[in-house]
């Protein structure tokens, strides 16, 4: 049972009575001074401030999510572009490789044909030189043989002229 229902509580010499009276007077003064209204306004203002901060945070979050989505889209586009560039570079490399092989084969074929022509020319020149050397040697041998036979026999000016012309005709 509460203490204010006992008759000793209502005795004017009781300290608890005067504490209760002081409390009621204090609360009355607070009500007259409109402290509860001021506290409510302060709490409302604080609530509004917190609500505006929450709204700002929600707005910033929405912006961040939009930026994140945009960045992801740009990343995907950049990756696709990089893949396209890589594919194009690989295609160019293959094309350049094919062209280089074709040019190399063409160059090798030309060099081989040139080498074959030079070999054929060298063979023809060597054959000509061998024939000329053989003809010179044969003419010299014939000249020596005829000179030796004629020296043993009489010298004939017609034979000497014919022998000197043999060398010129065989070359």
UniProtKB/TrEMBL annotation:
Keywords: ATP synthesis, Cell membrane, CF(0), Coiled coil, Hydrogen ion transport, Ion transport, Membrane, Transmembrane, Transmembrane helix, Transport
UniProt-annotated location(s): Cell membrane; Endomembrane system
InterPro entries according to UniProt: ATP_synth_b/b'su_bac/chlpt
Topology with respect to the bilayer: Single-pass membrane protein
Membrane-spanning intervals of the chain: 15-33
Pfam family, one: ATP-synt_B
Domain of life: Bacteria
Keyword NAD: no
Coiled-coil portions: 43-125
Family: Belongs to the ATPase B chain family.
Function: Component of the F(0) channel, it forms part of the peripheral stalk, linking F(1) to F(0). The b'-subunit is a diverged and duplicated form of b found in plants and photosynthetic bacteria. F(1)F(0) ATP synthase produces ATP from ADP in the presence of a proton or sodium gradient. F-type ATPases consist of two structural domains, F(1) containing the extramembraneous catalytic core and F(0) containing the membrane proton channel, linked together by a central stalk and a peripheral stalk. During catalysis, ATP synthesis in the catalytic domain of F(1) is coupled via a rotary mechanism of the central stalk subunits to proton translocation.
Subunit-level organization: F-type ATPases have 2 components, F(1) - the catalytic core - and F(0) - the membrane proton channel. F(1) has five subunits: alpha(3), beta(3), gamma(1), delta(1), epsilon(1). F(0) has three main subunits: a(1), b(2) and c(10-14). The alpha and beta chains form an alternating ring which encloses part of the gamma chain. F(1) is attached to F(0) by a central stalk formed by the gamma and epsilon chains, while a peripheral stalk is formed by the delta and b chains.
Protein name per UniProt: ATP synthase subunit b
Classification of source organism: Bacteria, Pseudomonadati, Pseudomonadota, Alphaproteobacteria, Caulobacterales
